[in-house]
Amino acid sequence: MTAPGFRTALASAGWHPGRTAPAHVRTWLLETMAAVSADGVSPWGLSAAASRVIGEFGGLTIRPVPPGAEAVAHGCTIDPRAARHATAGFTEFAERLGARVFPLGVTDDGAMLAVDEHERIFRLGQGGWWYLGSSAPEGLARLVEGHRPARVDETGHWEQLRPLPRQAAAWSWQEHAGAGGSSADRGLRTAMVVAFLLHRAGLLAARRLRFTAVDDGRVPIDQVFRLGAGNLEEHAAAILAEVGRQCGRPAETVRIELHGASPSAAEPAGDWSCVLTTSGDGRTGLSIGFRGECAVPEASPAFGAALSELNTWVEGR
Q: Taking a C-beta distance cutoff of 8 angstroms, is the pair 67, 220 a contact?
């Protein structure tokens, strides 16, 4: 399961478990397959995988989750008609892959999306073809959340990508009226408490903090701060001063990411992360994610200890 941003974006677009696209989406498949190349031949062979993906996600417009985890986050519309006339490019790419390729949709910057007969998702944009994931959920999550894709080379191969972050736990709450402080101040104080609890449980040694503010559609600051040795409160004070200098006024929404690795060699190999969002009206969300090869990081004793402490702390908010 991917981080919560993609799931939220997907739900906001109208997706739900077991969704079947409206009947008119099936006519889009027929319109796409009716498009022909210059030699009068239709290159589109609809695979079972393409039919299944469009049958589930067709008609959705999925918004991006800014600012992007590793690259620019892009939204998309799942409508195969958007790329039905790009026959030459798709035909050449299918030959390169050795697999049938079908149009899937278009991104918010005009790039075309494709799905092959193995349900792998690709993007045709600047620099050629890019591999997004081995399934529709993985590929769309990498696009929408802004995780780095892999460029497809001339032989139809690409470098192996790191697994997407998986959500291990999540909370949401409303700060009480007397909480005080700006969203940046409350968010940083909360992030430092969470960092302390995760470190005490032996789960996360926070190494960097990414602070992003959104104000009236602008992003006045999106900066990574290194967290070296020292008091967490001192780090928070220094970061808050820099945020105030760049923003000039309290931002309406703040997103804070804590990244690091387990300080214990006994814990699963991979990276743990914490994402906190808070808004001017006191709404706050917190999630913990894991990115690595371990299948069930939630089973670790350290995670159980951290989860117990965090549950108690959140209940007291």
A: no
Q: Where are the domains of the chain?
A: 4-151, 166-315
Helix residue ranges, H only, 2-86: 4-13, 23-34, 48-57
**How does pLDDT run across 168-209, given as a tens digit for each residue?**
788 888 877 556 678 888 888 888 888 888 888 777 778 889
Cβ-based neighbours of 232, under 8 Å, separated by 6 or more:
192, 195, 196
Q: Which residues contact 301 (CB under 8 A, 6 or more apart)?
A: none
What is the rounded CA–CA span in Å between residue 144 and residue 139? 9
How far apart CA 216 and CA 43 sit, in angstroms, is 46
Torsion sign across C-alpha atoms 127, 133, 134, 139: negative
**CA dihedral defined by 85, 88, 94, 97, rounded to 10 degrees?**
-130
Structure tokens that stand for 71 in this block:
């690259």
Angle subtended by helix axes 48-57 and 136-145, to nearest 10: 50
pTM here is 0.69
Give the single-character DSSP code of 311: H
What is the C-alpha separation between 183 and 15, in angstroms, rounded? Answer: 30
- Spatial contact of 140 and 6, defined as CB atoms under 8 Å apart: yes
What tokens appear for 30 in the block? 């027929």
Overall size of the chain counted in residues: 317
